Amino acid sequence: MTSSIDAGAFARLDRDRFFASIRSIFGSFTQDQVDGLNRLIDAFLLHAVLLDRRHLAYILATSFHETGKRMMPVREGFASSDAAARKAVASLYAKGKISRNYALPNSRGLSFYGRGDVQLTFEANYAAMGKLLGIDLAGNPDLALDPATSAWILIEGVTRGVSIKGDFTGKALEDCIAGDRCDYVGARRTVNGMDKASTIAGYAVRFEAGLVAGGMPLAAARLPGALGAPIKTGSSSSPVPAPAKSLPDKAPAAPVAQPINSPSNVGQPVPLGFWARLLASLRTNMAKGA
User: Fold this and answer.
1) Do residues 43 and 148 make contact, with C-beta atoms less than 8 angstroms apart?
2) Which of 70, 172, 247, 278 has the most CB atoms at less than 10 Å from its CB?
3) In Å, what is the CA distance from 103 to each residue of 26, 43, 86, 93, 127?
4) What is the pTM of this model?
5) What is residue 135's three-state secondary structure?
């Protein structure tokens, strides 16, 4: 769904009001959480093909859940090192909780356990996403921990982006949130079946309320910067706003909604067709020229 609303209105979100509205979800903010939220909003403005406030709300809710409300990319099991992440996956396998130890290193010694705002797992999935984004994720899986790259992976994975479909599971947010339909519970199918679907839907409702408080419109046409070019606001062209460097003013605290600290696995890789390869090439070329 699109509207005649100026797409630049999305970039003019009043972030002070937004942060004040969502403070109760966190209890109190750390600077990393503030920077992480700004990072995801900026990435959505840059990469989303369809601008829908509810899509952004669900993306924020997904990161909130998958990162244990850190709002920054994490290794699987919230491990602090590569070795610790491999050990965490090996432990799950030994306990029979997963059917395959996907953290075992390949012939080059690289391990493809979960990384990011949403857990990208398995070498084939790293390779497929890397091809879509024009990034060598298969050759350097830790790139999925880069904040900007991680945000792009999340947005591409759950929306109809370069591949014109949801890349994690084949389902996209546009399949359940469009027009008058807003199925935040069903939106979990874009990431991991229906695991914790109602919990994450509740987070999405609260994040959307924050975006509404900040003045973000419901939907608009794609921004000129959706393929990596600078975003135009008003009569001038400027890059995506840098993350805020200071914490927003405090708002009254409320009980914290506790996420489940258990990152999820994504689906199997999606084959790349002609149009997907063409769009990926266009995106890469435009990004280089930006």
Assistant:
1) yes
2) 172
3) 31, 28, 5, 10, 15
4) 0.78
5) coil
The CA distance from 118 to 194, in Å, is: 15
Instruction: Dihedral sign for Cα 62, 153, 246, 19, please.
Output: negative
Taken in order of first residue, the domains within the chain and their CATH numbers are 8-289 (1.10.530.10)
Kindly list the distances between the CA atom of residue 125 and the CA atoms of 78, 112, 153, in Å, as whole numbers in the listed order: 20, 9, 11
Within the chain, residue ranges assigned H as helices are: 8-11, 15-26, 31-47, 53-66, 82-94, 123-133, 147-158, 197-213, 274-289
Q: In the structure encoding, which two tokens stand for residue 154, read together?
A: 């999340």
Averaged pLDDT score across all residues of the chain: 81
Which contiguous run of DSSP H or E holds residue 74? strand 74-75
Higher per-residue pLDDT: 3 or 49: 49
Do 119 and 266 touch, CB atoms closer than 8 A? yes
How far apart are alpha carbons 85 and 119 in whole angstroms? 12
What tens digit of pLDDT does each residue of 138-163 get?
999 999 999 999 999 999 999 999 99
